[in-house]
Amino acid sequence: MITVFNFYAPFGRWLATRAFVVMAILVPALAVAAEAERSNTQDVIERVRRWLPGEFEGAIPGPEAAASDSPQRLRHQIVRVPASSLGEEVYYHEIAVGPPEATRIFQRKLYVVVMDASSVKTRVWLLPAETRSVASHSSLAEAVASELAELDLATLPSFPEGCEIHWSLGGEDALIARVTPDRCRYFSTAFATDIFPDMMYRVTINDFSMRDRLLNAEGKDQVPDVGVMKAERAPSTTSEALSMTTDADWRVPNADHLLVMKLAAGPVIIELAPEFAPKHVHNILKLVQQKWFDGLTINRVQDNFVVQWGDPDNTRDLGDAERSLAPEFTLTDSSTLNWRYLSDGDLYAKKVGWAEEFPAALDPETGTAWLAHCYGTVGVGRDNAADSGNGAELYAVIGHAPRQLDQNITVVGRILSGMELLSALPRGSGPLGFYERVEERISILSIRQASQLPVEERPLIQVLKTTRPIFDRFVESRRNRRDSWYLQPAGHVDLCAISLPTRVPLTP
């Protein structure tokens, strides 16, 4: 043990005394506990499940570590383990230490998380330090579960009675674990005295930090205070990133701006964007409310381009709807929009990202913004005249993003669900993909606002928020693919290569 930390023996001894208590799950000593302890226990356990597992890596704190000839790193790997005999929430934590090219396992721990009506707390066991092999198992969690079947926890060192780690929420974006001196103490053989741990750890979607002090009976630091350690979470795959989301990371679309287009093959759900095209959205809703689209058809399917629907013969009365509208190709004042920018740049605009949760572009010099033509974008068909579109003829992009259409057509929304029904339609054989025979056209059974449907028929779809911390991890998972199949991460991602995830939440 001392040889591992020979660059700073006191720090090595300090870290060794944490065999029972060093949960590498972080926090600067911030004043968050009072409010956090009032958090709902179910919310805490859900965040534990999603945010605690992962790989984290960071530098050992302290000037001595920085001055070492070989940079010293701590790497933490935490996995949820299937061990029903111990509890529903069981986690394995492995700490490796040393230079990046030659880390050695320093400590292996087991956490059993227990939830009651008022708290979430953890008991800790120290596992044998020898390296275990996962060669005969498909995952680390499976290997640990197999190892636990051979162990008697009664024979393993454990946190002394009363020294549970208590979990709580630190606002919307953090998970807090804390042990304080007034709750816990244990005898340290390294220092031949009672130790009073004062620890707080903070886990977020992207990283963790920890402030971990050992105090003596007088309340003074038993070892020099080496400060806060912060470690970054390893890059995620897309599925891993989404598995870490909580309910707060998802939004329910406004039912007044959600359309359900029923085809014989199933429903297509469209979310409208009134912030960008208020007049056209208003006109479309007029048409929908008077059931104007019912019985009309999909008339055009052009390969790698669009699906288009409306009145092919232009004979149906528009009722109260406008016949023509001034174009809403761009929004000249974008100062009120909520943006999440994409750092990778764009060929078609000076800045891109998501505005009001829609893929959009911006000219920062003029403040002009517009929605981007990505896969699934819904726009308004028009003739050559800029004011010839009114929303009675709509299209959805089913091919490679035709960004040349940006600022040339009014975009009114995007498809949230049902793209597979549109993209799989037979291609039209006529010019521009129009169907040449009436019998080829695809009938539209109805289009309705979700808010006008009976409650039991309304779509339950939710969309990942672009404003939440987890969205950064989702974007990175698309920028640099780390699925096992990929050998070379791209290092770059295009705006239209990031389709916002949707989900249908589980219902009781």
Task: Outline the structure in words.
The chain is built from nine helices and 26 strands. With 508 residues, it is an alpha+beta fold. The protein folds into two domains: 9-234, CpcT/CpeT domain (Lipocalin, Beta Barrel); 250-503, Cyclophilin-like (Cyclophilin), CATH 2.40.100.10. The strands form four sheets. It has a ten-stranded antiparallel beta barrel with strand order 1-2-3-4-5-6-7-9-10-11. The chain has an eight-stranded antiparallel beta barrel with strand order 13-14-23-21-22-16-15-24.
Short description:
By secondary structure, the chain is of the alpha+beta class. It has helices at residues 9-16, 33-36, 41-51, 63-67, 140-148, 238-243, 278-289, 419-423, 469-479, and strands spanning 54-59, 73-80, 89-98, 104-115, 120-126, 165-169, 175-179, 186-188, 193-203, 207-215, 229-233, 250-251, 258-263, 266-272, 297-301, 306-310, 339-341, 351-355, 358-363, 368-371, 377-380, 394-397, 411-417, 442-449, 462-464, 502-503.
